[in-house]
Amino acid sequence: MDDCIIIGGGPAGLTAAIYLSRYHLKIRLFDCGSSRAALIPCTHNHAGYPQGISGLDLLAAMRAQAEKYGTVREAAKVTSLRSIEGGFAARIGEREVRARSVLLATGVINHRPPMPDALHDAALANGQIRYCPVCDGYEVTDKRVAVYGTGEHGAREALFIRSFTRDVTLIAPDRHDLPPEQLAQLTAADIALVDGPARDWAIDGEQLALSTAAGHLAFDSLYPALGSHIRSELAVEAGARADASGCLEVDDHQRTSLPALFAAGDVAKGLDQISHAMGEAGVAATTIRNMLNAEAPLWR
Ligand SMILES: Cc1cc2nc3c(=O)[nH]c(=O)nc-3n(C[C@H](O)[C@H](O)[C@H](O)COP(=O)(O)OP(=O)(O)OC[C@H]3O[C@@H](n4cnc5c(N)ncnc54)[C@H](O)[C@@H]3O)c2cc1C
């Protein structure tokens, strides 16, 4: 039986792999190749890279670092996870792999606006679509920005972006549905409210253009605020607790409610950021090491 199975090869899973491999533990990492970090054209808020670094380059460097210390990494999807005597069994295709502990680092998937995939990806690559104002609000300083969403989430995102630019428009996917308190906050912040549905998405020179109930509009950047799918199903099926949104509940050592099952990164509740994912993974990995050592000393 292995010491730990890591499910997910984004910043959280790879950080844990580096730590656990350097603790001389026998681990396996499975990754189905859809890290959110791979979508980052160039991050400018990740400390240590004053010129910025692309998500793909960061992931490649982390993979090289994990492999240098002996991490066994497989490009494969884990399709089920169950508790067994002394640990867990993970299913990968026809195979079952067993380990004394599991770290789930499967992340989330952002819901996308209703636009053609090719257009979405082109707009994402050049900063006309952005998903994370915490990450890149600085880059839209004094630009013309739209947030695509409504309700509490849409209003929160629009108000957050207001500290980067005075030109913010909140576009509803259909019609706005805003509680009076948020409507008052948006009005006080001078945020324009536009009803959808949004159609005719197009890249128009430096801007992203779309038709709305208020006519044809164009923005330097648009932030979808449509929520995410939290990839916590494997842990929930195995018996771990998640909150209403699907985020796994963890304690301050990244332990889920199921013994020996840990979670780190976006799949656990917290700030969806690379640095946070890495920090949680370091805590999880060290707790896993200490737990295994308490069961049987890891002396060489
Ligand atoms: C466009 C964009 C820009 C961003 N910019 C920044 C930024 O500038 N700075 C910043 O700090 N953050 C940024 N973020 C957020 C950052 O990407 C995430 O917080 C970070 O990637 C979370 O890491 P993670 O390891 O938790 O999840 P992820 O990076 O999403 O990795 C999860 C991994 O788990 C794998 N996986 C899922 N299910 C399975 C399964 N069943 N079996 C095997 N593998 C599985 C996936 O393939 C994936 O590789 C950005 C996000 C986006 C979308």
From TrEMBL:
GO terms for molecular function: oxidoreductase activity. Residues 3-281 form the FAD/NAD(P)-binding domain. The keyword Mitochondrion does not apply. InterPro entries: FAD/NAD-bd_sf, FAD/NAD-binding_dom, Ferredoxin-NADP_redctase_2. The keyword Nucleotide-binding does not apply. It comes from the Bacteria. Keywords: Flavoprotein, Oxidoreductase. Coiled coil: none annotated. PANTHER family: THIOREDOXIN REDUCTASE 1-RELATED-RELATED. This is Thioredoxin reductase.
